Amino acid sequence: MNKKIKENLLDExxxxxxxxxxxxxxxxxxxVQLNELNENTIVQSMNDMKTRYEQLERTSIPIRxxxxxxxxxxxxxxxxxxxxxxxxxKSNGIRII
Length: 97
Description:
This protein is mostly helical. The chain has 2 helices and no strands.
């Protein structure tokens, strides 16, 4: 009886060791897949950022150009206001020297 219990226990130990080995292999396989997915995610994210940056470059102007145009518009606005005032004075019969 004692011998039979010992054999059953040894068989159970062997089965558990085999199951443990299979689980370790599966764990390693899943770890490799996870690392590949992480790398792919990082690469995809970098590609997305590059695409957004390129789109931003295509649809944007440099700040110095924007500031220059803004300054030019202010000058045109001042000139337009001055011309309108002169025209108003002329139309009201005021002589401008």
